[in-house]
Protein 1
Amino acid sequence: MERIFEVSTGQINAKKQVIVMAAATAVSLFGDALLYIILPLYWTEMGLHALWQIGVLLSVNRFIRLPLNPLVAWLYKRISYRQGFILGMILAAITTFCYGAFQSFWILLIARCLWGLAWTFLKLGAYLAIPAFSDNSNRGYLFGLHKGIHRSGALLGMILGGLAVDQFGISPVMTVFAAASLLTLPFIFTGLDRKQSSTEFITNKETVPFKKVIIQQSVITVLASAMCIAVVYDGILKSTLSYLVNLQIDSEFMLVGLAVGASTLASSIQSIRILWEPWLSPLLGSFADRTARRAPVFAGLLGGAAVLMVFAPLPMPLFMFIAIMLGLQVIGTAMEVIVLSLAADVAQRSSKVHVMTTLSVAQDTGAALGPLIGYMAAEWLGITSLYVFASLLFIILSIKWLKEPAERGFQTEVNKAAPVD
């Protein structure tokens, strides 16, 4: 039976609203995901004149989000979540259309900055909304549901878009993707509450100054964990996975009669995570909701990732290496869901707006700096030392989280209610 939660605007269906938010966000990702595929291949056809311009276009949207998060959070105090999502999807449609319609670096640069703004509306809107109409019994499930659905958009954009570009060209495909973003507007208009906004959930805690909220030890621990996960998974692991695979196989190997190289295996390991997230993320989130204490579980995941990180660069049979990589991907999915739940737990006791906004900034910072840190550290320290460093980072965080339940009360009640359908 679907669970209905009482808020000041009346009865709303929390699960339905999360699905609408996540599905719209998934569609918005079509153009962005496809750009990562086609830009390195067709950069001259898209009006670029130097390879460095590719890097700028693929990273500027992440850096621009850092100052935009506080601005969008301020706007969400004055507009509804529905209005924010409508703005985000309109901007997503405009930017996706620009990717195919214009062959100019400077126009594409502006479009990527606008996409950073669109993504901030969509991501931060969900981060503020889900804690508002959830509780300890379903918070992890709803965060996992949102994450699982919206991440599928990247996979569809890469696969369907890549096939379509070969047949029809860049401009027609991007135009269709832009139209798809606009087609989500009626669903957003009818599926999200027209009045619900951050202001309706503001309590006396929300009046606490930003500095006093952020300097709390519990908040710092959550933010540091979120940033480190982004650095390690979006930076170190993603940027060095192909190199690790190449260390394990000297040349192509045969799989089901097909020759498989390092790049194919690396991309397959990365892609398979997107395949399982639509069903695994809600499952893991629901498990977190039914766990008496989220912090020790999170500490265990950090410890497990630390162990696998140590073994990842070592010589081993290929099947063991693949098992370790897949294990790291499963743990990464679980950690990303649970850290959102932990952040929402902290936000309930302090300030939803301040905590969730800063969490988004921390994740964006880690995602922006991660690839740079990964490449530079691999060159200066060597691949083995790099992964040992990542392992130590997770061990330190794991120890910290093991102490948190006793020190800061990071504890949630076991969910005794019926499961969310």
Protein 2
Amino acid sequence: QSMGDYCSLSSFVAFVDGFSHSLGLERFHLVGHSMGGCIALLYALKFPHKIERLTLVSSIGLGKEISLWIRALSSPVFGRIIKEAAIAITKAASRMIRFLHAPFQFINPVTRVRVDMVRTVTTWKGQATVLLGLLSELMMPTLLVWGDKDRIVPANHAYAAAELIPNCQVHIFEDAGHSVYKEKVQEFSQLLKRNGDFKERAR
């Protein structure tokens, strides 16, 4: 298989399905963030009988808008330059951290695979995969979580999607960006626990 095959959305959906089978999961609560949100959404659409509840966090796939620097990666030439520069900077910073014996590390280092993954869902004009037309098929309880200061995927995508999903709730965290599950760990965990058994759409 080529790297493009490994980074395709369908390959990730197949991976989630195989992983759930290996764990013996018949029905489960699926949570996805950013590109993982798009994968989770596609999985829920393909295997709705397996998803108890769906949570999408700053998910890609709910609108065309996405940050300029992400769109730049879709350009073969410009994207390659940015990718190599970002990887070089990450490696240099990691070496410096190790040299200084600093008590922290990069949580999400920039890698070639990570950048190639991003390029599968974006074009220069915006997101390549927009699933708004399929959202009405989601029958499971769905929770959309965003940060109001998300600079990668705007929070208004959550509100637009909520109008189309039959059983949906939206929660916007104040003073949070694209990774609310890391920025608001305790609050995010409490939200998932609190909304674990919601039945009706909040209006």
Protein 3
Amino acid sequence: MINAFKLTLPEKRSSCLVFASPHSGNAYSQAFLSSSILNEREIRSSEDAFVDVLFSAAPLFGAPLLAATQPRAFVDLNRSVDELDPAVVQGITKSSNNPRISSGLGVIPRVVSNGRAIYRGKITRSQAVRRLKDTWGPYHAQLAAELAKSHALFGKSVLIDCHSMPHEAISSINHGKQGCPDIVLGDRFGAAAEPEIMARVEAAFDAAGLTVARNAPFAGAYTAQHYGRPSRGQHVVQIEIDRSLYMNEKTVRPNENFDELKGLITQVIADLVSIGRCKLQLAAE
């Protein structure tokens, strides 16, 4: 039986925030590695390596942390369950012009970074269904449950969806005198979170001395689209961190700046968890 996620709960839930890391899973089974034409280092190039570690302090500040255990190359948890690629799964017919599927980045990816193919051929439909049942389903069931719990306690939920991005993805972006951004925040251009919440998240990263951009080149994918319902008090902000700030992208190892950045991220978490405590405090009075 696949363990799809690790959930770390706070001793006392004191914030409506839920932190999630859907792409940091690194449990590469031998069966999966054997099915791929890539070696273990190459296949990890699509992984948001160590993001769960960077945000590991969240439960200490009263917010749960949900982290995937299975790798993104196996199942992409930031995709809809029906975003199946006919070029990688047998018996699937193309139903729409989905740019993520077309580029090989469906719910079961065909490629990793730089368009490198994962498989020689296709996997069976039954294999795909099993992966989704064992990995995608449990992760999203738990995520939905944590968000519902936050909403019930605090009157709203704020999902901080934690990711990392290759440096090359933002190396050409000009952020004025500060150069390319360290952080890209995505709220689907306001569709996934209220402006006040997005502003609070941006201010927390600014206060930590990190350069922030919004929605370009990453505005948020399935998770932000599916769970972000500001009119219902359900908010999602996607966070993308420049990998070169904390790791060697070629070797997939932490670099000399890892501990410093982790400290800054912990500072950001401490700043953000104050969002949405009001209802719980009033209920306790």
Protein 4
Amino acid sequence: MAGETDPVRLIVGLGNPGTRYEQTRHNAGFWFVDALVRAYGGRFAAARKFDGEAAPISLDGREVRVFKPGAFMNRSGGPVRAILNFYKLPLSSMLIAHDEIDLPPGVARLKRGGGHGGHNGLRDVFAYLSTDCWRLRLGVGHPGHSDLVVDYVLSKPANSEQEAIMHAADRALTTMPMLAAGQFEQAMHQLHTPSPAS
């Protein structure tokens, strides 16, 4: 695959802005990048030229930019394209963290490319760019019927589900230095191998 060895230099979390949505399942991507920036001593600041918030962090001495689009989920593509273009980063050096209804809470998976699966944030990003990027899929579970998905992802998970989602996010955090070093197989092996407690 073209650009397969490009290390990750941009990590984007998908979510909806505003207090109304901050605790909803659809904002799991925001939860992850918030935890990432806290873990590495960074701080988000307004990035108006990209319509969002950005934070530089150092992952084992490698500078990585973390970004939260300021537009609503289904308009994420424009801000994401803007920051990629400004820093002249290849698409293959980007990781998108997002909620994933096809995985249960407590499971996180790394994936390269693939379809949007009905996820409106991914749909818009892929419409502006392409699918040739890394994805961190944070399981939030499925409501059981497709007609229930919108209300489900825009609602707050139970405390036990929230804890499981964040536990998976914490495991994913440990793989970020590997991705920044281009060690993709190692990162996937570490994240996808069940921990002794799971």
